[in-house]
Amino acid sequence: MSSFHRWLELLFSRYLYIYENNVPVYFAGFYATGDTLRIAVESGVVKYRKNGAVVYTSTATPTYPLLADTSLSTAGSTINNVVLSGNLGSSASTVQWLVADHLGTPRMILDEWGNLAAMKRHDYLPFGEELFAPTGGRTAAQGYAGGDGIRQQFTSKERDVEIGLDYFGARCYSSIQGRFASADESLIDQRPSSPQSWNLYIYAANNPLRFTDPDGLAHWDKTGHFVGDYDGEYNADLQAVWVAKGRYWDFEMGRKRANEIYLDKLELERQRLLINWLTWKIYNDWLEERNRPRPHADTLILFGPITSASRLLGPAAELLQLGTARMNLLNAIENPALRRLVEYSYRVGARIGNGSTADAIRFEKETGVLLSRTGHIQKGKEVLSSLEKLLGSNKLNSKDAEIARQLIDDLKDALAK
Amino acid sequence: MLSQNSMQYLPQLNEAVDLLLSRVPEFAEARSRDASFMSYEDDSPYLIFGDFGLFLREQLKNKPRIGANEDWLRASAHLIDKMLTSSDPEVANLIQVGVLEVLSDYPTAINLVKSYLSVPGQEKFDDWARISQVQTERG
């Protein structure tokens, strides 16, 4: 307990005595119903006031905590009749009451007495820019003078008067612009259906009369609850789903959604592994096909058969393979008869192998599926015969002859299987 | 499109080459004139019809429709229709492998030929296109 005890005693037919350390130091007259008594530390000195007027100034230096008490002998007197205020340190200080609007913005500032006459007032535009006198008929006499030193301003955030920004925790906010001074974290709550959400500098979903942003991260409703932006929104932090109609977060649905998201991730991982496998398989097929002994392998690049896997890569991959063999051959051949045989033996639009008759025959033999009414064997035999005659005619240059020999080998290989 | 009544008979394999050379003399003339043709002898029907397919392809690949003075092309389409609907599978195979596969590299050519086929001919054509995975205007 502090060594100083300061108290006000009301006793004996409403006599008003001032006691300090249980010693009466001053008789302050009489106490009437409705009188307001107050102990105040003002400029480091304890003063006793009755109805605002100083009745006694203590000569003792106050110590803290300052202990004050009343001793009431009159029925109906309460401790509320004593008001503590004043400077507990060396400079002046007062209690002020802040009356806020639905957004938490202090709009009326009352002194410790609640006097309307001394009220200070603050008005703001929707996005927080403050309106001072004489804007819109506001006057200093109405309390719009400013300079009251109240730190809590728009939505109770502190405003840095030097840079004109409000401190919202994660970010600073410019009330003049109605935008945050830095961007929100991207790809968190942006939605294609809500273009407003694409703006990372936006404040309270551009709806500042309905929402606030307590921490610079997300907008909350006026009841002080974090709200969803749309019905069915899933919040990963809460693991809950927003029910717009009831305006509440459904945690049961949230758990289900979290489970679905987990399963979706598993599915994505499965698909990723499948794509890896398909990529490997396509490459492996291509490698195997490339290494298979083929005609004109030393001068031409031939691609492997079109597989179901390669079709997953889309038409570009197919087009890459289709027609390439014939094109390469035709570019390399000089003899017109040999060119004509290749044109006849290789199809651009074929879906089997490299489009050659030899690959069509192989396919038909291996699968039993005929690609025409009775298949390609007879065609292959006649082309083979024609190639052999052409090769034996000595009309081919060495390069064409080599190509013809390899085409013959390829057809013989296909027909022999 | 050919009417079904215009199909008087369906050719057999041993008469297919003669039929081709007689019905489309323009091809026969080109074949005798150009040494690069594959078919040295008349006993290689797949080579002869392959030459016919290449000959047709060259003529049709840039033509959206057959002109009024190109009767030989109509005769060619008529022959294809008859062979495609032949009861002899080898005859149908000959036209599929020898001609249609060659034409199928050029959608304009293959679709033009198809448009001149009879209803049964178009059905046979679609069967072949499905098996051979040829992309036509229909499918």
Q: How many H/I helices of chain B? A: 7
Biggest interface goes to: A-B, 25 and 31 residues
Q: On the 0-100 scale, what is the average pLDDT of chain A?
A: 77
The level of helicity of chain A is 25-40%
Distance between the termini of chain A: 111 Å
Order of helices and strands of chain B: HHHHHHH
Tell me about the largest β-sheet of chain A. Answer: 4 strands, mixed
Main β-sheet, spatial strand arrangement of chain A: 3-2-1-7
Number of strands of chain B: 0
Q: Which secondary-structure class do the elements of chain B indicate?
A: mainly alpha
Give an account of the 3D structure.
The complex is a heterodimer of chains A (417) and B (139). With 417 residues, chain A is an alpha+beta fold. Chain A is built from 8 helices and 22 strands. In chain A, strand 12 and strand 13 form a beta hairpin. In chain A, helix 5 packs antiparallel against helix 7, helix 6 runs parallel beside helix 8 and helix 7 runs antiparallel to helix 8. With 139 residues, chain B is mainly α. The longest helix of chain B is centred in the middle third of the chain and has 16 residues. Chain B has one domain. Chain B starts with 12 loop residues before the first helix and ends in a 7-residue tail after the last helix. The chains are: A alpha+beta (417), B mainly alpha (139).
